[in-house]
Amino acid sequence: xxxxxxxxAGGRTPFVGxxxxxxxxxxxxxxxxxxxxxxxxxxxxxxxxxxxxDALADLRAPAGPIHGALxxxxxxxxTALAGIDARWIxxxxxxxxxxxxxxxRARAAGSGLxxxxxxxxxxxxxxxxxxxxxxxxxxxxxxxxxxxxxxDVWVGVPVxxxxxxxDLPLACGVHP
Amino acid sequence: MSRLLDGDLEGLDLRAELPRLLATVRxxxxxxxxxxxxxxxxQDPVAxxxxxxxxxxxxxxxxxxxxxxxxxxxxxxxxxxxxYPRLFDLAEEAAxxxxxxxASRHPAASWLVPLSKKGETFAVGLTHLLAAAVxxxxxxxxxxxxxxxxxDGLVFAAAETGRAExxxxxxxxxxxxxxxxxxxxxxxxxxxxxxxHLAAVWGPEPDALIVRLxxxxxxxxxxxxxxxxARHLPRTAATLRAVLxxxx
Lengths: 176, 248
Fold this sequence. Notes:
The complex is a heterodimer.
Chain A: E1 3-6, E2 18-25, E3 28-35, H1 42-57, H2 69-82, H3 86-90, E4 95-101, E5 106-111, E6 113-120, E7 123-126, E8 146-148, E9 153-158, H4 168-171
Parallel strand pairs in A: 1-9
Antiparallel strand pairs in A: 2-3, 3-4, 4-5, 5-8, 6-7, 6-9
Chain B: H1 2-5, H2 18-26, H3 34-43, H4 45-53, H5 61-67, H6 71-77, H7 80-90, H8 95-105, H9 112-119, H10 126-132, H11 138-147, H12 151-161, H13 165-171, H14 175-188, H15 194-202, H16 207-210, H17 220-228, H18 234-246
Helix pairs in contact in B: 3-4, 4-6, 7-8, 8-9, 8-10, 10-12, 11-13, 12-13, 12-14, 13-14, 13-15, 14-17, 17-18
């Protein structure tokens, strides 16, 4: 099942403000990984991440035609994230990668990403070029989404962080 | 000798009389050193430092205990990093007093970690951690003791303070100990922001981790508080609901 990871920061509390999850919304599988208030305290990060989890938990399956469902789900998710408490948005430090798939194609939206890698056929490779519009400054994500290659795992790399050369799952807070 | 022990230093060239002062302290027996040390602390702190922790220091629990009220004066003569380990080495059965005083005055000091290892045989690090719990350096102190392998000290500190930082620090070195610390901290203070601290170290999906600490919970209040903050942790929430049905 496709999943999304986000690389954690260095140090002893690398996952302040991190959230990760996935939901099936009608024909669409939406997966996400993000970081909200990651530059804040442990308590602030948790509260902000809980607010983002609440927002994404309230999403509903698109009511319209299947055509455009990926775009609709991503737009709704980005709108939901942009609608969390203004104090978390105002920090301008949100990094998030959202991927919607229907089994035949994948689209992504996000913010605060310096790179997006993916596991395709068991090998990790960059999924978008350095000038791809999915990459950009931290903050609430816009509603625009972009086609991305299908993958087993998509990995967002927040702006300013390197793609880990080893122990990628642990660097993303993924435990066996 | 009596005059010196009474703190009467009038007319003395203290530096020149240092050997006599050292002999006086060494031979004081049961007589109190407090008047002499009080006089030296105001008139010649360097002479006091020589007697208490210099290269010819007399040493012993009595001398060190008598010097501790003047530790601020001694710190002016010798850096805390040098002073306290030296006092500790000279203190014999008063070593615990030195460690406690050092921890209370310098809770952020990294040299307290090796000093704790020298000075505590049970729950190494506990003295420092309890002192640091009221200081902003508590989280970094917990990490330093975790790195040094002071597991029991961190678990006891969690139980004593109800704070989440010991468990979070242990998570990087010993997951089972971290869960023990988390459980005891929540029993002590159910409002402890445990999930936030553990998730910050572990990662964004801590459900499988948190569910493992539930068997260690002893209080209903702790279980209820954890349930209240576990709305996005389905396994944890389901297990807590089941456990709470059987808890008094």
